[in-house]
Amino acid sequence: MHASLRIFPRSLQGQMLLAVALALLVAQVIAGVFLYRAATAHGEAEVVNTLAFQLIADVRNPRSQWRAEADRRRGGFVERRRALAISLLDEGTRQRRERAPDREQALADVLRSQGVAVAEVIVLAPITPTERQRLRGGRPGNGTSIVLAGLREIPAGDWRIAAHELPRFTGNPLRGVLVQTVILYIVLVGGLALLLRRITRPLALLTTRVEQFGGSTDGAPPLAPSGPDDTRRLIVAHNAMEARIAALLDEKDVMLGAIGHDLKTPLTALRVRIESVEDEGERARMAATIEDITRSLDDILSLARVGRPSDPLERTDLGALVASVVEEFEDLGEAVALETTEKIALPLRATWLRRALRNLIGNALRYGNDARIRVSREGEAPRQWAVIRILDSGPGISECQIATMLEPFQRGEASRNRETGGAGLGLTLARAIADQHGGTLHLANKLGDSGAVEGLVAELRLPL
């Protein structure tokens, strides 16, 4: 998947921040739900208690003479509103309206708890704008809703009326949750990001150091411990391990140099002494044996040292380097052809890469009698590759043996004769050189149109 389309972060810091952010979001959503339900229950309780207060007051304080006189001075507004409310509670009218059974039950319970005899309780949901205006005595109001309740103490008794005007803006509890969430994200996630950066930054430096470590510190100072105590201990342990590995590899190089010198010196002496052998055929066989031992020793020493090259990377034209190796074989009269090439410049260790190409081309000539080389650039930025393909016309390799052919001392022909294939280190050394450059070596059979094997393809891929 393309990096820009990746939603889930891959870094430790990104995953931790995402986990905390999601957990905080879930917690705030749950808190918002509870707050909303609590606010809704509180609003319902306020409506029921207000209606109950009005009805209880009407029951315990019947309409007095001075209230009737006040209503008369107001033009009978109270009586008109009462008549309208009673008409809304009429049997035929209320059947066509939305009732609130939960409010009715809650209101009846409150009234009974206060000693009011309840025969029937009706609560109508918010009524139409026209009726709201009439209940307000013609005042337009502010667009709020009115809940109307009626109480009968006996089945045939008069209605006692209560009305509650719901406030238009009661406040939104979710708004406070949203503000709280934003503040928590800024404080908690921001603080956690700073803490994780303090942890992951030294880990990133340590990762880079491990990736660049090739068995030698190259004179670079040890990585300075930083971050929390656990990270510091990890960096200190890595520095100690790095020093031990470098010391062991240095000791190995000294040992290999000594082995090479101790073995090559008697081989050189033997090469001189066989000149005294009179039988020319026997002398040639002895010289070939010594040469075979020398080459095998060179391959083994090269394979042991390929992981710690002494020569630096130099920017090189890969096409020109491949062409020079092909010319070497052409000068020897070998059937080698450079079919396609491109001008590709990249950092290389030219000596080692020439060694890998010679081994691959030599194998193609030995088993396929010819070698065709192609150099191309493949892939798209930022993942581009320089690809070298060596094709031959040989019998190929059995599919079950292709993977093992890259292992040391593995070869298609069982003998260790240099004329029929050598010690089986050529492909292993070529793969190690590819790994040294961050690339890969892959073998595959080349199939013809009929599906038959028509040769082998060795593909050396180097990252650009």
From TrEMBL:
Which residue intervals define the domain HAMP in the entry?
A: 197-250
| Known catalytic reactions | ATP + protein L-histidine = ADP + protein N-phospho-L-histidine
Broad class of the protein's primary localization: membrane
EC assignment: the record states 2.7.13.3
Topological category with respect to the lipid bilayer? Multi-pass membrane protein
Q: Name one GO molecular function term.
A: ATP binding
CDD domains found in the cross-reference section: HisKA
Span-the-membrane segments of this chain are 177-196
Which UniProt keywords are listed?
A: ATP-binding, Cell membrane, Kinase, Membrane, Nucleotide-binding, Phosphoprotein, Transferase, Transmembrane, Transmembrane helix
An example Pfam family from this entry, by short name, is HATPase_c
Show the SUPFAM superfamilies listed in the entry: ATPase domain of HSP90 chaperone/DNA topoisomerase II/histidine kinase, Homodimeric domain of signal transducing histidine kinase
Q: Which residues form the Histidine kinase domain?
A: 258-464
Identify the GO cellular component terms for this protein.
Answer: plasma membrane
The compartments listed are: Cell membrane
Q: What is this protein called?
A: histidine kinase
Species annotation:
Aurantiacibacter arachoides
